[in-house]
Structures are given as C-alpha cells and as structure tokens.
Amino acid sequence: MTTTNETRPAEAAPKDTAGRTGKPVVELKGTGKSYGNIRALHGVDLAVHPGKVTCVLGDNGAGKSTLIKIISGLHQHTEGEFLVDGEPVRFSTPREALDKGIATVYQDLAVVPLMPVWRNFFLGSEMTKGPWPIRRLDIEKMKKTADEELRNMGIVLDDLEQPIGTLSGGQRQCVAIARAVYFGARVLILDEPTAALGVKQSGVVLKYIAAARDRGLGVIFITHNPHHAYMVGDHFSVLRLGTMELNASRDEVSLEELTNHMAGGTELAALKHELAQVRGVDVEDLPEEEDLTAPVATTGEAVS
Ligand SMILES: Nc1ncnc2c1ncn2[C@@H]1O[C@H](COP(=O)(O)OP(=O)(O)OP(=O)(O)O)[C@@H](O)[C@H]1O
Ligand SMILES: [Mg+2]
C-alpha cells in the first residue's frame, strides 16, 4: 500500500465561506504596535476580503513591515483588535498564522538556490510514499504536481530540474505565489515583491498577483510604488509614520491622488529647495514634482 504525506488542505481554501458572506478574512480595528517606547504603528484599520487585493503603501519606516509582522504571526499587536474570520486572534508564531491560511512571501525568499525548482516548491512539506520505516520522497509525484500547479497559475518554466537560483527574481516570486496557492493559502501577504525588479519582471509578478486574486485569495500587497499598486489594487492604505493617512477603495482614489499621497508633494518641494543650496545643481533644471514620479511602464498583458 502506498501512503502519501500531502499536507495540502482539501481543494477548499480559496472557496472560503467568508467570500460568500462578504465578511473579511482578516481585519484590523484600531490596531497598533509599540516596541518598548517606540510606537511603530497606531490606529490602523484594514480589511482583507477574498478575491481582492489590498495594497499597503508607505515610505521607509512608515510601519509596513510591522503591520505584516502582526498579521503573519511574527509580532503581536499591543493596541486594538486583530480578527480572522471575525474571531479575535493573537498569534504566537508564524505557524499559527499559516494554519489559518495566512501565507507570507518575503522579498528575500527562503529558497535553496542549488535545489531544483520542484524541490523548492515542496520545501518543508515534501510528499512521501511507502510505509515507515522505508518511507521515501515521492519525487515523480512532486515533479508532476509542481509542474501542474505552476501551469495552472500560467507560469511556464522550461525545466523544473533547473536550480531555482538560476531563475530571475520575478520568476522566483511567481513560484512562491503558486506554492502558497497550492498549499491552501486564503490570505497571501507579499512584502515588496516588485521592489528589486525591473519593469518587465514587475509586470510578470503583478500578473500573478492578479491570478492569485482570481483564484479567490485575499492579497495584501506591500509596495512603495503607487503605479504597481494601482494596476492590481482594489483597496489602498497609505501609512505615514505609523498611522494610516489614506484608506480608500479604488473608486474613491485616482492614481494621481495616490501618487501625491506617496510622493508627499510638500516634501518634494522642500527637497528641491535644499538641492538649490547645493553647488552645481541648477534648480530650474530639475523636473517638476509630478515628473519625479513618472509612471513605470509595464507590459500591456501584465495584468488581466
Ligand atoms: N524591532 C523593532 N524595535 C524597535 N523599533 C522598531 C522595530 N521594528 C521596527 N521599528 C520601528 O518602527 C517603525 C516602522 O518600521 P517598519 O519596519 O515597520 O517600517 P517599513 O514601513 O516596513 O519601512 P521600510 O520601507 O524601510 O521597510 C520604524 O521607526 C522602525 O524604526
Ligand atoms: Mg519594511
């Protein structure tokens, strides 16, 4: 008899009941976090719905990582409420968040560069066959499943035997997204997945964010880039110095407004003034504020 150690929860996850009732899977109400005397986050409201992309934007130090650390179980909030499926929760470890279907893809992905793509796909949750004590890895099944799952997400790689380290950063992000979808994530948190990527690769990652959304996952997309956010986002939250400066749905905010919130028009004006004091910089030659945030082009087919 063959036994298979497959940790994937039955097909179920994306078709979460929360989707049908319209209730958020994850919700923050007036949530905050202090590290000793430092108040990193304060009064944050956020709702993550199945099949929607919630973008969290903010400058360096705004509190984005702190926010996702609370949701992903790395840190605990010190103020307000954190609800999953309407129930208050307080995770002690990332494992507890994962058990609730909350998966996080970090920018420096935890992959083993020299191992093949399929091996990384199953890293830590390998499929096995045969009874104990002669249980061994079910290599054929893992290869076949990884191939199917990547194709299901529209990701076509030439060879799953190639070391994952030979893939581009964008492709690795896509494999990580497909992996989270396969292992039954209901909420997918992406920490600046496009930050280190070029224009074309960013487009590819955005396409798979849209694919995860279409599979019914609630996506939390952390980014500095309002253009990337606006391409896939349904809801936008802008953090500034730990508080929520903007909390708006797509029909309440234009790309231009979002860009202005991110760029901080007055700060740019001050910067221009400062640069004018520096010898050799002719302030008249500097672009106008809106030019400094010129749109980042992405491939047309990048987002559905
Ligand atoms: N472990 C910690 N101990 C003390 N202060 C911290 C800790 N982590 C973050 N902070 C502080 O909390 C604030 C928010 O930091 P956070 O890392 O959440 O910002 P961020 O928006 O992710 O920034 P970045 O874009 O640079 O990643 C910062 O002032 C930071 O110094
Ligand atoms: Mg951060």
TrEMBL record:
Provenance organism: Streptomyces curacoi
Gene3D superfamilies linked: P-loop containing nucleotide triphosphate hydrolases
InterPro entries per the UniProt record, alphabetical: AAA+_ATPase (IPR003593), ABC_carbohydrate_import_ATPase (IPR050107), ABC_transporter-like_ATP-bd (IPR003439), ABC_transporter-like_CS (IPR017871), P-loop_NTPase (IPR027417)
Residue ranges of the region described as Disordered: 1-26, 283-304
Acidic residues bias spans: 283-292
Keyword annotations from UniProtKB, A to Z: ATP-binding, Nucleotide-binding
Protein name per the record: Sugar ABC transporter ATP-binding protein
GO molecular-function term, one example from the UniProt record: ATP hydrolysis activity
Keyword Hydrolase annotated: no
Domain ABC transporter: from-to ranges: 26-266
Statement: the UniProt record of this protein carries the keyword Chaperone: no
PROSITE patterns, sorted: ABC_TRANSPORTER_1, ABC_TRANSPORTER_2
SMART domains in the record: AAA
